Amino acid sequence: METAAIVYTSGTTSRPKGVMVRHAAYTETGASFPGWIGLEGAQRLWACLPLFHINAQAYSLMSALAHGFSMALTPKFHASTFWHEARALEVTSVNVVGAMLEFLAAQPENSWVESSLRTIYAAPGPPPAQRDQLEARFHVRMLTGYGMSENPFGCAESQTSRVKAGSIGRPRQPASRAFENELRIVDPNGGDVEAGEAGELCFRNPVTTPGYWNAPEVTAATIKDGWLHTGDAGYRDQEGDVFLTGRLKEMIRRRGENIAPAEVEDALLAHPTVRAAAVFGVPAGLQEDEVVAVVVLRNGAASDEAALKAWAATRLAAYKVPSRIHFRDSLPTTATHRVAK
User: Fold this and answer.
1) Is the same domain home to 43 and 104?
2) How confident is the model over 67-118, as pLDDT tens digits?
3) What is the pLDDT of residues 276-326, one digit of tens each?
4) Is the whole-model pTM more than 0.90?
5) What torsion do the CA atoms of 186, 192, 198, 201 make, to the nearest 10 degrees?
6) 340 within some domain
7) Do 78 and 136 share a domain, yes or no?
8) Of 22, 105, 147, 341, which has the maximum CB count within 10 A?
9) 3-state secondary structure labels for all residues of 56-76
C-alpha cells in the first residue's frame, strides 16, 4: 500500500511531524465515514476545516468522491455567519472540531437560521447534556468520534457511548469488511490493561501510517510490532466503550497520582462564566507537578480565582484542583482551533 500524501500533525505538544498517509487510508475511510455517522441518501457535505487537515481530506472530500455526494468548500470557519452560510450553500452535513462548537454556542440566540444542515460531526464532542442542548437549539443531529492523521479509523460513537460523558465510542470498522481495526489499551510495559484501567490507546490495521517522513527514530518509537502507539491515554468500560482521558505527554504527576489535564479542563469549562481553559503541570520539586490553569471568560462574564477553585473542588479530587488559575483574553490556537500548549 503506497503512500498517497504527507500530512503534518498540528504540533500542539511537540514539533509537527510528516505523517505518510496510505492510498487505502483515504479510499477505505471515504467509503466508510458516512456509515459511521449515519448519513443516508443524497448529501451535500461542507468542508470548512483546512484542506491540509486529515478530517477535511479523508472524512469530507473522500466521502464525497466515494459516494457521489456534492461538496461545498469554504476557506475559513466563521462562527458569526455559520448558519447563514449553511443556508446559502444548501449543505446537509459538516465536520468541526470541538472548539468550533464553543464559538457557535457563544453566538447570540438569533444567529441561527433555518437551513438544510442536519448533521454535525464534532471531535472532540461536548458532554451529553450540552450536546442535547445544542441539538435542540440548532435543530441538528450531533455525533462524535476519534481519529488522527496516523489512523483515520480510530473510534466512532456507539449506541451505548452516546450517553456517556467522555466516551469516543468503539473502534471503527471498514464498510468493505476487508480488515479489522483492532484496539489495545496497554500499560507502560506494553501489557494489556483491565477494563476500567487507564493506559495508552494502540491501533492495528493495514491502513495506518507506515511512519513519519524522514523520521525513522520517531517511527520506530511510535509503531511497534505493527501497533500504532497513539500517545493518547484512555480506558475501556465493561460494555466495550472507549474513553479518552488526555495525552500521555501532558499527564500531570501530583501526590503520586496521574492527573489528566482534560479532566480538570472539563470541570472548569462546566462553569457558566468560562469559555476556554488550558491546564498543564509546572515542576514543583521532588518529581511533583503543580496544577496550573489558564482560562478565558465568556463575554461580559465575571469570576475570580477563588470562585473557580471552589467550583472545581466540588467536581474534582482535592489534589486535582488547580493551585493557580490565570485569566487571559484569549488562548493561542492552531489552524484547526486546538489550544496550542
Assistant:
1) yes
2) 999 999 999 999 999 999 999 999 999 999 877 888 899 899 999 999 999 9
3) 999 999 987 666 789 999 999 998 899 999 999 999 999 999 999 999 999
4) no
5) 40
6) no
7) yes
8) 147
9) HHHHHHHHHHHHCCEEEECCC
C-alpha cell at 63: 466521502
Residues 278, 196 share a domain: no
- Please report whether residue 287 resides in a domain: yes
Are residues 271 and 182 part of one domain?
no
Cell of 7: 500530512
What does the pLDDT look like over 123-134, one tens digit per residue?
988 889 889 999
* Residue 334 belongs to a domain: no
- Residue 71 · residue 61 · CB < 8 Å: yes
Split into its structural domains, the chain has a count of: 2
CATH number at residue 96: 3.40.50.12780
Domain co-membership, 116 together with 207 = yes
Handedness of CA 109, 120, 11, 293 (dihedral sign): positive
Tell me which of 203, 229, 246 is where a domain ends.
Answer: 246
Domain containing residue 299: CATH number: 3.30.300.30
148-174 as b/e: b if 16+ CB within 10 A: bbbbbbbbbbbeebbebebbbbbbbbb
Residue 11: pLDDT band by 50, 70, 90 thresholds? low
Q: Are strands 199-204 and 227-236 parallel, antiparallel or unpaired?
A: antiparallel
